[in-house]
Automatic annotation (TrEMBL):
Lineage: Bacteria, Bacillati, Actinomycetota, Actinomycetes, Micromonosporales
Species name: Micromonospora luteifusca
Name this protein carries in UniProt: Transcriptional regulator
């Protein structure tokens, strides 16, 4: 039985979901609407513990919560770059970018491109674009 076939019944602790819970929710996001999550839930889940799960979800064009996962990857990238990689390991970020460039579709290639641009030009950071979903909604490449 796959994650998509199982029924998701909610998070044991929504502030600190497990990778399995996040994955199960992502394939049935209407089971627990985002509006019912704690404030700034996107910021809470965008850390090292869940980044590989978020990346996997963002890489899956069939995932119903793909845009949310991609949004979280933008937060993760910005958080790492803006803290000079004190918040997240630079090596992990680079590996994700390289994998997105190699195996991702256009959305993931744009995320990788934007991550590389921000890495080279941290002054291009705007909270709206990176943390409030602007780059996901507009699906644009930074210059």
């Amino acid at each position: 039985m796959s994650v998509q076939e199982s029924t998701f019944h909610g998070f044991a602790n929504p502030v600190d979901p497990s990778p399995a819970e996040l994955r199960a929710w992502a394939y049935q996001p209407d089971s627990v609407p985002l509006a019912s999550m704690p404030p700034d839930w996107d910021l809470l889940v965008s850390g090292d513990r869940l980044v590989l799960t978020l990346f996997e979800l963002a890489m899956d064009p069939t995932c119903p919560a793909r845009r949310f996962a991609l949004h979280c990857l933008y937060i993760y990238a910005a958080d790492g770059i803006r803290t000079n990689f004190r918040a997240h390991p630079k090596r992990r970020f680079r590996k994700l970018v390289e994998q997105a460039e190699r195996d991702g579709d256009e959305l993931m290639k744009i995320w990788a491109h934007n991550g590389r641009v921000l890495l080279a030009r941290p002054d291009l950071f705007t909270y709206r674009d990176w943390c409030e979903g602007g780059l996901v909604r507009e699906n644009r490449r930074l210059g």
